[in-house]
Design a protein that fits this description.
The protein is an alpha/beta fold. The chain is about 35% helix and about 15% strand. Strand 2, helix 4 and strand 3 form a beta-alpha-beta unit. The termini are far apart.
């Protein structure tokens, strides 16, 4: 009954767009080069925590993108910014004063292109009412209203991506409760992707929470991965899997754990997958909870370096589309990096990222 009602009620009175049997997202059609199609890409996420003046975005973008290209040796950048959902249970998705504007995203894109970086866009949704602000808690009513509002929030950025020839638009990230079998969402995601494809003609993708990608809760044991993908050809996933490894684990041991984990995923899925987000603190014990980027603890550069190296080796071994390291904040000054345990700038983690270009080769 909830789904039936939601299909009728939509913001602005617009019903879902009718779709053919397969959307452009499912077919993987693109006017531009597909990220990782011929060789895995080394990417870094450039994260805008707020909106800033044009002058600030220009100056910050020049500084951070030069660092990403010349020091980290990346060939791609994921531009990441925040949309907001006031509650996980309503259909509102908002652009606020803290959301990087589409015009500012365009400024960063032009700088990245000048620096010979491939570009993907990846908006996140923060839910301030939830303790961890995680978009995976979003379970809205009415559903059709939410999809329409989400499309409207992304629309200016879709237009910018089309105008500037952005390679890929990651239309959603870790929307766990909108990506589970318990909800009959079959008519809603395809119609959303169809609307997106009318505006943007590059690769339309979606990034899965690792629990949905492997089909098992993070850190649990399983024999065969059972991904729960949406109807898109090109997939992404966020990698923060909990691993039972000691802080003294060697690079080879961490890499073996990564390769064993991804080796349970069907090859046909792996070849279509990019790791759109991955990170870990340089902290003893972080292997058990890599998603906790703010935990206190003892610094261990080796932990972060091992994790980063393992990611690159795994992407290479399984011919995945690439990996994006989370993150360089837009306002960072890499010459004077922050001292937080999650910061890789100026640390051995940055060296591991730059060496990744040789691994992906």
């Amino acid at each position: 009954m909830l789904l039936a009602a939601s299909l009728v009620v939509a913001s602005c009175g617009k019903p879902p767009v009718p779709t053919s049997s397969k959307t452009a997202a499912e077919l993987g059609t693109s006017e531009w080069r597909v990220l990782g199609e011929s060789q895995p890409v080394l990417g870094v996420d450039l994260y805008a925590l707020s909106n800033y003046s044009t002058a600030e975005v220009e100056a910050d973008g020049q500084r951070t993108l030069a660092y990403i290209k010349n020091v980290l040796k990346a060939d791609a950048v994921g531009i990441v910014w925040n949309l907001y959902a006031p509650s996980p249970y309503t259909d509102a998705v908002k652009v606020t004063d803290a959301t990087l504007s589409a015009s500012n995203v365009g400024i960063l894109t032009r700088i990245a292109i000048q620096d010979h970086l491939l570009v993907e866009y990846r908006p996140l949704i923060l839910v301030p009412s939830e303790p961890d602000h995680w978009e995976g808690t979003i379970s809205p009513y009415p559903l059709a209203g939410w999809f329409n509002n989400y499309y409207q929030a992304e629309l200016p950025y879709l237009k910018m991506a089309q105008q500037l020839g952005v390679s890929e638009f990651v239309t959603g990230t870790e929307l766990h409760k909108l990506n589970i079998n318990g909800l009959n969402l079959s008519p809603l995601w395809p119609s959303f992707f169809a609307r997106v494809s009318l505006v943007y003609h590059g690769v339309i993708s979606y990034s899965l929470w690792d629990g949905d990608y492997f089909g098992s809760a993070p850190g649990t044991s399983f024999q065969v991965a059972r991904p729960v993908p949406l109807p898109v050809k090109y997939l992404g996933m966020d990698m923060y899997w909990h691993m039972n490894l000691p802080a003294t684990a060697t690079t080879a041991e961490v890499t073996a754990s990564w390769e064993t984990l991804f080796g349970k995923v069907p090859p046909s899925i792996l070849r279509r997958t990019a790791i759109d987000e991955m990170g870990i603190q340089a902290r003893a014990g972080a292997y058990a909870d890599p998603q906790d980027l703010g935990a206190p603890g003892l610094r261990s550069e080796q932990v972060q370096m091992n994790w980063f190296t393992a990611a690159c080796a795994t992407v290479r071994r399984y011919h995945m589309r690439g990996v994006f390291f989370f993150k360089v904040d837009l306002t960072d000054n890499p010459a004077h990096p922050a001292t937080s345990l999650s910061t890789f700038e100026g640390q051995e983690g940055a060296g591991a990222i730059s060496e990744c270009s040789k691994i992906l080769g």
